Amino acid sequence: MNWIGLDHVTLRYTLSGRGEHTLVLLHELGGTLESFDGLMPALEQRFRVLRYDQRGAGWSEKPRAPFFLADHISDLRQLLAMFRLTEPVMIAGVAAGAAIAVSHALETPHAVSALALCAPALTVASERVRYLAERSERAISKGMAAITDTSLDRSFPPVMRRDPAAYLAYRARFLANDPVGYAHANMALADVRLEERLGQLIQPCLVLSGTHDLLRPPEAVRQLAALIPHATYAEIDSGHIMPVQAPEEMAARLYGFFTKATHSPLVRA
């Protein structure tokens, strides 16, 4: 593991793999770069893979001041610049990570060659905004233990706890979140409104839903995919936290999609 200092925050990251093309993995709200551990044996064989703990998460710096989606986008751009990854990159984002991926692709379209949007959180309903605010306040006042089980009952439902060790490890990482950083990340997600801009995406997109996803159910994800000009939609046997709940199937989907994408003009440019 390594750390890198950006303009206003220090992030933990890993850059691994021996491929010619770069794949960036963006974790979910409450996750860390370890969310993708189960995908790495497959993806590292073909791609150079960058994954990192987003600001406020994992072992990255925990800002006390609120931060927003724009800050996440700035962090990603700075990382790419500091590693001199000037060629178009491929990005896979899970849940809230998909919002960062889409925003970056919309603002710098020729810097992104392909996208995988997994259980994408690209718009937040008003009742969900209230829930995020209440959860943030409870995390700060009571600690992560006060919100962990109610949160994971939806994002990691019992039907997806087939591997007890994987679930317990994920739960432990969730509990270890800094409450303030987690609260800020919740409220950054509350501002996401990307649905109306999806038609502007020029990249090929793989859009994945999980059969057992209670937060972004398949029909809702399918409707989002229909708004994207070059989208391929698929449903996998997973809940919301795909890389932990269905690592082999998700890895196979990403491997196939991004391997095909490496032959597209945006990647070769």
UniProtKB/TrEMBL annotation:
Q: Which GO terms describe its cellular component?
A: membrane
Q: Does the keyword Cell cycle apply?
A: no
A GO molecular-function annotation: hydrolase activity
- Pfam families from the UniProt entry: Abhydrolase_1 (PF00561)
Q: Tell me the Gene3D superfamilies matching this sequence.
A: alpha/beta hydrolase (3.40.50.1820)
Supply the alphabetized keyword list. Answer: Hydrolase
The residue ranges of the AB hydrolase-1 domain are 22-244
Under what name is this protein listed?
Alpha/beta hydrolase
Q: Which organism is it from?
A: Azorhizobium oxalatiphilum
Upper lineage: Bacteria, Pseudomonadati, Pseudomonadota, Alphaproteobacteria, Hyphomicrobiales
